[in-house]
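Support reply, case 0932

Customer input (verbatim):
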Amino acid sequence: MNENSSASTLRRHEKYDRLIATAKGLQPIATAVAHPCDETSLKGAVEAGEAGLIKPILVGPKSKIAAVAKEFSLDLGNIEIVDVPNSQAAAEKAVELVRTGKAELLMKGSLHTDELLSEVMKRETGLRTGRRISHVFVMDVPGHAQTLFITDAAVNIAPDLPAKRDIVQNAIDLYAGLGFGTPKVAILSAVETVNPGIPSTIDAAALCKMADRGQITGGELDGPLAFDNAISPEAVRIKGIKSPVAGRAQILVVPNLEAGNMLAKNLSFLARADAAGIVLGARVPVILTSRADNVRSRMASCAVAMLLAYSQMAKEPIRA
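Our regenerated output:
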């Protein structure tokens, strides 16, 4: 994928369409879907299965899943259903399926995010690694030439510097794993200068120095940068900022969950952007969808997880 093509040549959704098309060229991956017990979560899993993106294994109360399928005319066909009594048991069993190798991806259904991630993070029975888990929104913004990654807007509430290091590294690894190359990473704050009165500017400067010292690898970092300075070449020109990242950032690292959540939702509801969601840092990618997600966003979330899983298995990126 040429991430540097002109925005004027991009029709809406083209970036997502290319991700989905690339994933459809691969064999679907067995995916444990935890508690798909409402229309949106069950429909998303079924349609992703029909599209050949995943091979869903539905984990939840069988009678409830069947009732939802009947109510909304969803054909479950030969999809495997693992019958468990409630959402807590579904989260536990879905994680177990991944841990034992019966599934290679994990997908959130209609249960709470905390309920699923608490099972992922259990020391003895979960899917922990040495890396802090974090969330990335992979956003297709109409009129913007490049796919934007926003992190972390869903998992880490007020990350400290070590957590931010992992958040940055997770996002870089995802970007590279999708075959996009070396990302330009903007560490966001309210201003573009280091100010002791704004702690996020201190963290930004420290993260950039960590990248200089090899503690963060695979990306080109700069910060602090305000949002306009990160994505607008014109804002960069007016302010006279000299930076290879400013105005051309592909990964936006926010100071905390509140800032990230507001930024992502502003782009979704005002700019009509689509937002695919994925959790990184566990043994496998976790597909984290929202009840407000449209079909294309759900498909893109599955495609991103699938492409990353393939790149991890192959130890090289799958070119999207």
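We compared this against your earlier run and they match. Two observations from our side: Confidence is low (pLDDT under 50) at residues 1-11. The chain has one domain: 7-183+250-314. Please reopen the case if you see a mismatch on your end.
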